[in-house]
Design brief:
The protein is mainly beta. 14% of the residues lie in helices and 35% in strands. The longest helix is centred in the middle third of the chain and has 16 residues, at 150-165.
């Protein structure tokens, strides 16, 4: 699951703690800029989840000012996999942005795209076990024509897939290729957890089977069918069994071109 937040200016009691707990368990959050973000700035209710600090906003009005375009900084990022033209390039040159945020990213934040004035436009950061994708523009057509672009739905669809899987490198496999998922890094963050010996897999047709875990790794070589594969494991820690503690709940195999 992924939480998408658009134009948030207040949160009910307990919601931020619930979101933090959600991300501690590997959840993904997508944040779109809102009308009141600049005024709230450091007091923004979503600040604990954000990938930087809000330093103001920009507005393109009259006087011959030109709307800002969206430029991809990291085209290899899996979030853009479904937004490519025939030649493989990620194309957002027709995007016109009139209103957005001025964001100062944290040092550990990754800038995936920027506006044509150099300001960060799409940022990604890791929050506990989860990730946050932050767009410095709203989803409203008054602020940009991004929601009207054919590539917008592709970007949103692929971003949800990436964040839902928690390990983005596991979703870019082609049908027929082998897939290796290393659990050691995730287990290292929980010293009380022991690596499972087996994981259950449900393939796109609904068939369930088991795979062994060898030295902290899962080797999956039967990816002949495109679709979502769901994994389930029981990881024992402090006398309790925790589902999905070591691995993402699913990964997507895309068709072989």
């Amino acid at each position: 699951d992924v939480v998408i937040i658009c134009g948030c200016s207040a949160l009910p009691d307990g919601t931020m703690q619930a979101l933090k707990t959600y991300q501690q368990r590997g959840g993904g959050v997508i944040i779109f800029a809102g009308e009141h973000d600049s005024a709230l700035a450091a007091n923004h209710p979503l600040q604990p989840l954000m990938s930087g600090r809000i330093r103001g906003e920009f507005k393109i009005g009259g006087g011959g000012e030109k709307a800002l375009a969206l430029q991809i900084v990291k085209p290899s990022a899996p979030y853009f996999d479904d937004c490519r033209a025939v030649d493989g390039r990620v194309e957002f040159s027709r995007t016109a942005v009139f209103h957005g945020l001025r964001i100062q990213p944290y040092p550990e934040t990754e800038t995936l795209a920027q506006f044509s004035n150099g300001l960060p436009a799409i940022l990604m950061s890791r929050q506990n076990q989860g990730q946050t994708l932050w767009l410095a523009v709203s989803a409203h057509v008054d602020d940009s024509n991004l929601p009207l672009q054919p590539s917008f739905l592709s970007l949103l669809h692929r971003s949800v897939a990436c964040l839902a899987n928690a390990q983005t490198q596991s979703i870019c496999q082609k049908a027929g290729a082998s897939l290796i998922i290393d659990l050691t890094g995730r287990l290292a963050k929980n010293p009380d957890a022991r690596c499972p010996s087996m994981v259950s897999v449900i393939n796109p047709s609904g068939k369930s089977f088991e795979l062994p875990v060898d030295h902290g790794r899962i080797h999956y070589s039967r990816t002949g069918r495109a679709g979502v594969y769901h994994l389930e494991a029981k990881v024992v820690g402090k006398g309790a069994q925790v589902s999905f503690a070591a691995i993402p709940p699913g990964f997507t195999i895309t068709p072989d071109p």
